[in-house]
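Q: I'm writing up a methods section and want to include an example of the input and output format. Could you take the sequence below and give the corresponding predicted structure tokens, formatted cleanly so I can copy it straight into the document?
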Amino acid sequence: MTTVRIGNSEIGDGQRCYIIAEIGINHNGDIDVAKRLIDLAKFSGCDAVKFQKRTISVVYKPEELAAPRESPFGNTNGDLKYGLEFELEEYQEIDRYCREKNFPWFASCWDEGSVDFIDQFDMPCYKISSASLTDDELLRHTKSKGKPIILSTGMSTLEQIDHAVEVLGKNDLVILHATSTYPAEYTELNLSVIPVLRQRYGLPVGYSGHETGIPSSIAVVALGACVVERHITLDRAMWGSDQAASLGPGGIIKMVSGIRIMEMAMGDGVKRVIEREKPIIKKLRRKG
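A: Here is the clean output for your methods example:
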């Protein structure tokens, strides 16, 4: 199993699980909310935060933008999409704030122009969303930046993942198992795919979760997940399409703690009698 270095962290077997707090669009277009979410991620013990970047006029067709949709930003889908999209000023402040906190950030870019935009901030890696897995041009453009890539695989067949891996190459690539329903039901998660992906590609494999709870995002560590990514929010009752599939402050703190406990509990796989068992042997074992 290969390892991948992202910033100061090594991703792979034998390493600490790399935990990503997905802010995405849960900032609701407010830079102050974004900063509070960065603070939450760092306080909870996450390793990085992730945003999403789109060139709205490229990612969405004019008729999609013109479609009626009520939101705090206006009455069309375009009003919503533009209202949620951070631009240069906001990302400069995010970059400044994260550097001040010594806390890594990066983004999933939904089009080539967004990759170029984010590239000015010298990211430790790039994320390719499940929605973009079949976009060969975007995959190649992201690869051209020469940074590690984290690839989410929701909504995808093994054959489509095979092709994406062929386009990206296996060097500096991490694959995340995901189910792209928001929120995902537990019967949809299919966590047993994680060891399948590990065996098929020989790469670090992680998990991007969209369920409402915590246990499954801890259990994946026992299945070999090297990365866990979850959306975070200040309050799951906040307005926004991704809030319900996110973890609030208490949730993300519990999840990170649970993952670290799971890592300790996994041990090294060598069966042995531990020192604290020896007096119990004398007390309870009748023979041998």
